[in-house]
Amino acid sequence: MTQRPGSMAALLAILIVCAIPGESFSQQGREAAHFSATVGYSSSVFCYLDRENSQAAARLWVNLVMRGKNGAAETRVFQNQAELEHELQAGKLDLVVLLPNEYLSLRNRTLLEPLYLSKRTNELYDALLLITRNDSGITAMHQLKGKNLIHPRGAANSVHRLWLETLTLRQGVREPKRYFSSMKEVITASQALMPVFFKRADACIISRNSFNVMAELNPQLKKQMRIIEETAPMATGVICIRRSCDQRQREQLKDILETLDRSVEGKQLLTLFRMSGLIPYQPSFLESSVAFLKKYYSLKNGAQRGGT
Description:
6-stranded mixed beta sheet
């Protein structure tokens, strides 16, 4: 499976879920554990993975990676951001894994301290592409009105959905489903791109990294496909810690994340999810995500005022 935005964050969620042995906060577990934590992650970070198989494989390798580390964790998966924020406000989450746009959209980001951003194939950023065939005659977004589109599965606040809404808002239509004749959700990049390649769909959305990987394997893709829209490169995952965590717990959690690539087992785990590691957070790394959201909300608010 080719790498897609969010999959790095998904692995991080799995790592934290699995890396700390034990999954409940029983009194016995608390007493035996060297430390404990509650980890929350957005369901959006899993939208590009086969969740059950990925978690099972990750759990196997993490058990080897974390041998000798004595800890306990409770994990929470949040289907919507409001619920995650409520638990965060109540001080019930110690570590949070989410998409950059979700982090930036939090009403009270001061409760969290970003620690790391995801990195894959030594790249911090990825972009989204809107792709058609060269011979389709479609060279611009306005020509896709009434056509069919294939796009990645994802929650309402996932980046590709916000971008898709941005594209249709620029055409004067608030809801993408009113712009296209049909919209189909898929899991993998190949499931999105290949129907367009074989002329069974008009357009698709996939990531730049995914397209590059597939085009390297099949050079015909670059020759026969046309990129008609592209986002600025953006970060793909953010790992945050609760600011009020005590120092000991903070150090334990950071140690888990920092040492993943320092053992054979850890490297195998990273390879399993086609990741190269983490990079310490810097505010400048999210500048393109901030600009993306500003543009989106500007268009959306304008459409609401205009009654589009």
